[in-house]
Design brief:
- This protein starts with a helix and ends with a helix.
- Helix 1 runs antiparallel to helix 2, helix 3 packs across helix 5 and helix 4 packs across helix 5.
- The mean pLDDT is 86.
- It is an all-alpha fold.
- Helices cover 74% and strands 0% of the residues.
């Protein structure tokens, strides 16, 4: 499956970065070059999730409470807690 090949390429390049053989930029370029002729689908739901996570992190770093974050972003407090927990891990 194509997803597994992409995942394996990303993991391989991350290992090279971790041991110091490559910079993160060159590793990212290698993955892009490897899949340049393939179509890669990224769901809009995933993009929205990442954007929400970034907003939650920013607001939490400012010291805003979960209930206020949930109200501002129009999501539940549970969702705020889950996004914050996944961002820390």
């Amino acid at each position: 499956m194509k997803e597994n090949i992409l995942y394996e390429a990303i993991v391989r390049e991350m290992k090279n970065v971790r041991i110091g053989e490559k910079s993160p930029e060159s590793a990212a370029l290698n993955v892009i070059r490897e899949f340049a002729n393939d179509r890669v689908y990224i769901s809009s739901r995933f993009v929205e999730h990442v954007q929400l996570g970034a907003k939650v992190i920013k607001l939490k770093n400012y010291g805003v409470e979960n209930s206020d974050i949930a109200e501002r972003l129009g999501i539940s407090e549970r969702h705020v807690r889950r996004l914050w927990t996944s961002a820390r891990n």
